[in-house]
Amino acid sequence: MSAARRPLPGWVEIGLLPLANVAMAFLLVGFIVKIIGADPLQALKLLVLGAVGSSESIGYTLYYATNFIFTGLAVAVAFHAGLFNIGGEGQAYIGGLGCGLAVLALDGILPGQLMIPAAILASAAFGAAWAAIPAWMQAWRGSHIVITTIMFNFVASALMVYMMVNVLIAPGSMTPQSRGFAASAAVPSMQAALQWVGIAVAPSALNLSLLLALLCCVGVWIFLWHTPWGYGLRTMGHNPEAALYAGTNLKRMTMLAMCLSGALAGGVAVNELLGVHHRLVLDFAAGYGFTGIAVALMGRGHPLGIVLAALLFGALQQGGAELAFEVPAITREMVVVIQGLVILFSGALVHLPRPWLQALFARKG
Amino acid sequence: MEEALTLVIATLAATLRVATPLVLCAMGGLFSEKSGIIDVGLEGKMLMAAFFAAATAAVTDSAWMGVGAAILAAEVLALLHGFACITHRGNQVVSGIALNILAMGLTVVLGTAWFARGGQTPPLSPGERLNPIFFPVAGDNVIVYATLLSVPFTWWLIERTRFGLRLRAVGEMPLAVDAAGISVTWLRYRAVLLCGLFAGLAGAYLSIAQNAGFSRDMTAGQGFIALAAIIFGRWRPFPAFGACLAFGLLDSIAIRLQGVKLPGIGEVPVQLIQAMPYLLTLFLLAGFIGRTVAPKAAGVPYEKEH
After folding, report:
1. Given this model, what pLDDT does residue A3 score?
2. Per-domain residue ranges for chain A?
3. Interface contact B97-A293, CB threshold 8 A
4. Chain A closest CA to B1's CA: distance in Å?
5. How far apart are CA A131 and CA A181, in angstroms?
6. pLDDT of residue A330
7. What does the alpha-carbon distance between residue A75 and residue A340 come to, in Å, rounded to a whole number?
8. How far apart are alpha carbons A340 and B50 in whole angstroms?
9. Which segments of chain A have a pLDDT < 50?
10. CA distance A345 to A246
11. Rounded distance, CA A268 to CA A291, Å?
């Protein structure tokens, strides 16, 4: 395997390799579409049109991308610390509990300028707290974070069902959802926000949470690459012994990385609850946490890459829904298939196309 | 008195019914993990197997064809996992998650395209299912007996054969196995294939023995409970079997306790009992109930030196 050590040019490593991974996943998807008797090229056309064909569909694509940016960043921050946080799902869910509790308790008292920041902080704090327990178990008790975060996803799900069915359900409601939030707790929709500055777009679920997500990208970039804590965190991810020797407290760094990760996952609750549902509902985080793994892997853990990958997955989510609507043979779950294959090819099989690319680009040397 | 006895027997029968797929998955997972390949994809293998079992049984009118298809489907995913983790030394957790998500989507996509029932397969007639052999009420079909045999079989294979010795060695120190001239790759592939076999049987049990057809996401986290059982059993067959039975008992109690007020405690939330396997495993992992000992090389790809 000496060939594996020959370095590839930078643009191949961060540009062409991820593209090759995704292309292989999509080839397989085309094959599956063929099997169920639909036309792959027609399906691709409908998917693209459904994702970016109108101002409304672009809005929905960006709305889904907002969730993926949050969960992608969450996975990436932990990953840089050498921790595999697959509990983003549960952390986003419990972040929603914090968000809902804060709004339900305070929306009668606080004006919007205070209510929304308070709800955002509550989402982040609850998401961080839910990640802090597995972090503590990893740092002090030596239990593996992959296993514990899986378990915490299920516990979060059970806890939320209990809270929604028995405690937070709106009086007289038949479905498990809370009472509606007051208008002061609503993050303005992008349509309304753009109208203030005189731009007219079609209404969609897109709201100003997108700006919060982009702000988090910048924040994560500064934190990871331009602060001593970020340096320590990445050192721990590359080589824990070196980090220890350099004076990093590994236990505390584990806590910091995981809490930050959980807080970022909590952003999903802001987008979904404050931006769209305007009440606490069940299963609003479904699937976003796991897709965040694909986003982080495809984006190579860099905020810019994560934004691009989140856009791709947002487009898939929205375009896939439109595709399922247009072609009866194809269901919405086709998107789930694509996500699974992208995770497989750009995660577990990331090195599969490497030998071919090496044959093409790494001759000299 | 007789009523209480009936209740006890019914609960025990329900426990065995619920525990069967858990035990099969746990035994399969044990082979994989003992060889150093972490498998969080048990859930996906079982789901895919359940779908292909029901789909094949519905089309061919044969339960046994269903079982065969289930095993085949699970083995395909197992081989993919092996291809990614053993051959290409990819991240084992990422691969497992990818296969879970793939199975979740693919079963619904194919099911809707083939049967147009919103992801379900057509309901199976008794002739297309595996039926109880001796006690119709208990649901003691052939897979249940196979499951009861699978535990001593797994123990014997891992603890008492040359293959098992090498399997344990490759999970603890692959370098030593390699140095002895035994192929790490081939050993691990065999472990992964054994895992697929058991997960396939578990899936077939769900859709053509316990139920009469496939419905979307019908595994409902049982693959992860099996994973918890492996940890709880500290990577040993009989203790893992015990953990599966305990988790199965919890589940059958949860159904009976729905809405019942216990003296002194009040109503126990069903969700608490459902989350119990995970909570207990977390307590175990936190070191409150003794230590866990995972195979040392689990999760680490083996890179052969040249």
Report:
1. 47
2. 68-287
3. yes
4. 35
5. 26
6. 87
7. 16
8. 19
9. 1-3, 365
10. 36
11. 12
The alpha carbon dihedral of B283, B284, B288, B289 has a sign of positive
Query: Which of A347-356, B63-72, B210-219 reaches the highest mean pLDDT?
Result: B63-72
Query: Smallest Cα–Cα separation from A72: which of A225, A279, A297?
Result: A297
CA distance B215 to chain A (A): 14
Gap from A182 CA to chain B (nearest CA, Å): 30
Alpha carbons B301 and B306: distance in angstroms, whole number: 16
Angle A57-A60-A64 from CA coordinates, rounded to 5°: 140
DSSP for A272-297, please give it.
IIIIIISS--TTTTTTHHHHHHHHHH
Burial status of residue A171 (CB atoms within 10 A of its CB: 0-12, 13-18, 19 or more): exposed
| pLDDT score of B296 | 84
Find where tokens 């930078």 sit. A10
ipTM of the complex model: 0.89
Is A325 at the interface with chain B, CB within 8 A? no
pLDDT score recorded for residue A5? 57
Lowest mean pLDDT among B42-56, B118-132, B177-191: B118-132
Which SS3 state, helix, strand or coil, does residue B146 take? helix
Residue contact B287–A344, C-beta within 8 A = no
**Are B294 and A144 in contact (CB < 8 Å)?**
yes
Instruction: Verify whether the Cβ–Cβ distance B285 to A351 is below 8 Å.
Output: no
Instruction: At A81, give phi and psi (nearest 5°).
Output: -90, 5
Mutation site, B37, B79, B88, B93, interface A, largest A CB count within 10 A:
B93
For the entire predicted model, the pTM comes to 0.90
Give tens-digit pLDDT for B142-189: 999 999 999 999 999 999 999 999 999 999 999 999 999 999 999 999
Q: How many CB pairs under 8 A join A and B?
A: 151
Residues of A in contact with B228 (CB under 8 A): 151
Choose among B40, B90, B106: nearest Cβ to A337: B106
Among positive and negative, which fits the CA dihedral B229, B232, B235, B239?
Answer: negative
Q: Is B3 exposed, middle or buried (0-12, 13-18, 19+ CB in 10 A)?
A: exposed
Dist CA A1 CA A6 (whole Å): 10
